[in-house]
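Moderator note: this is an archived Q&A kept for reference. The question asked for a predicted structure of one protein chain; the sequence and the answer are reproduced below.
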Amino acid sequence: MKKKVLAALLATMMVASLTACGSKGETTTDAAADTTTEGTTDAAAEDTAAEDTAAAGETKDLADLKLAFIVGTENDAFYQSVEEGIKAECEKLGIPAPTLGDQELDGNKCSDLINNYVAAGYDAIAFSANDPAGTMPAVQAANAEGVKMFTFDCTLDDQYLDQYLAFVGSNNKAGGVTAGEYVAEHAPEGSIVGCITYASAQSTQDRQAGFEETIQAAIDGGKDLTLIESQDADNDQAKAADIMQNLITKYGDDLSYIFVVGDPTGYGALSSIQAAGANTKIVGFDAGETACQYIADPEVGKIWEAEVAQDPVGIGSGIVDKIAEYFTTGAIAGDQKDLIECKLVTAENVADYLK
């Protein structure tokens, strides 16, 4: 009997012991699971925070920024005014005096400047992409180093939208439309009109396209005009003069209007028109001080009738504002491209554009 009781007691103790081990094992497993869950949750939270920070971008005190801006050429009143806007806005926002670079309308020089600024540890570089394809390797290398890239006046082709954060510049195609509308309205019926362009820059390509499409639309709508093929002066005043001389020789006074996509091109065209005593009129693009003086002049204004005005100071200050926005908030709100509308300048309102 005692043996049976003892056996039963031992059996009970073994069951109790097994149950206790099981409970202890379950408790240990739950604790481990809790620890693992907490660790996983913490790690996930850290990863999410890191992703949010990366998505938001980098922020930095404006007073600590090191910025560089590369204009197309400092030998141009337009870009001189852009630089004025850049410097004034940096001072206004408390950003240290920026470095200003001149690429001299040379893609290789622009690339060298970008590479130098990257090596020197600049936080951001903004440049006028006058040679989009030529500067792309340098831009991609800058992005790989974490330098923030911005463009102004001339931007990169649309397949490279991921290579820069924001662009500020004129609505160049709309400006070309404005020029085309003026010419379509004022050109005599039966006359010839044309364009001297700069085919290497996206901004001037857009101006040319806006002009040509508008003239063609006027022709399709019944206006008796002939639109000749645009000629590329490569932003060179001497080449523009030669092109204009050849056009005058070929078409004579039937060539009523020539649209020039930039003031330097217009200066060359003007010299040939004056030398030949031709009746061709000029509509320009930029509205620099010299061009506006020509419009206001009683004699030269009979040739240089109108300009499409940009806002170079606004472009300069605008790109600084975009950079400041990015480093303040870690992002750029709104559209990637900020396009500033152009205005028509004629003898009636040119006084508003003269300093």
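Archived answer notes: The radius of gyration is 33 Å.
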